[in-house]
Amino acid sequence: MDKRDAASWLVYQRERHRINQTRYRERQNEFLARLVEDNRKVREEIAGLEQSRVSITPLQVTPREANVWGVAVEYFRLFRYGVPDSPLTTSSCVQLDFMRATMAQNVEVNGGRGAETMLKSWKGRARWFDDVDVELLALLKGPGDSVVASTKASITITDQTLRYVFPHLRSDEDGAAGAKKALIADRILGQQIVLYGSTIFGWDGDCNRVTSALAQSDMLTPMLALLGSLDDVALLFDKSLMLPDSKWKAIPKN
Question: By residue range, what is the domain housing residue 153?
């Protein structure tokens, strides 16, 4: 290769690198824009709930006397500390029996349908996060016969969280990118974060059962407080198994 060919090849490589960098920045900007917009919607919903509180008294619900308000309260009483990561515990059996007694067989939940799918999601949180605590703050009448619950949850980020929920932070990637991910992992490890969110319970008054229980919680805000940069938050969620609204992309498998 003569000097002119070498110079042309160098120009080509530089231009290709510039285009790739531009595309990468565009993708990152689009991802950040989606994060900010999703976070704005969650915060607006929570603010609306905070303005319309109703009194909450713990109670136990039986299928005969079930109503959506009572079911919602009992749901958060039973699930306040999550679900033990074992199929044989008494509490997980009680929780599953409650869902089967008060929810439709094909109840719509985050990640699919059915009580077993919901229980699997809760077990994922218990397995990959420590100190799970979900507090019911308020209930608000939603569209039709539905009820919207305002919640405050706290969880602790562990090594298991990094290994299975944010595995890309513990990759063997070299260079600046690998060092950046390792720094993010170090910043969030061991931190307890608080997530404000909501759960919408759909209700069928004819059969007195919950038809849907769809939850979301704002994980973006506490992560931004820990990391201090939207770019770092975007990198955190870019290849994670959990979305910024705390929904699973896919429940991790060990």
Answer: 62-238
Domain count, the chain: 2
* Strands, E assignment, the chain: 103-109, 112-113, 129-141, 147-157, 192-204, 209-217
Residues β-bridged to residue 242:
248
218-249 pLDDT, tens digit each: 999 999 999 999 999 999 999 999 999 999 98
Q: Give CA–CA dist 76/97, Å, rounded.
A: 15
Per the CB < 8 A criterion, the answer to whether 169 and 185 are in contact is yes
* Sign of the torsion formed by the C-alpha atoms of 85, 90, 94 and 97: positive
Answer for the pair 220, 243: CB distance below 8 angstroms, yes or no: no
Q: Do 17 and 72 reside in the same domain of the chain?
A: no
The pairing of beta strand 209-217 with beta strand 129-141: unpaired
Q: Which residues pair with 157 in a beta bridge?
A: 129
Which of 169, 176, 185, 180 is closest to 226 using CA atoms?
185
Residue type, 112: G
Q: In this predicted model, what pLDDT tens digit does every residue of 8-36 receive, in sequence order? A: 666 666 767 677 666 766 666 666 666 66
3-state secondary structure of 66: coil
Query: In terms of domains, do 10 and 111 share one?
Result: no
Q: Pick the closest to residue 207 from 117, 116, 101 (CA basis).
A: 101
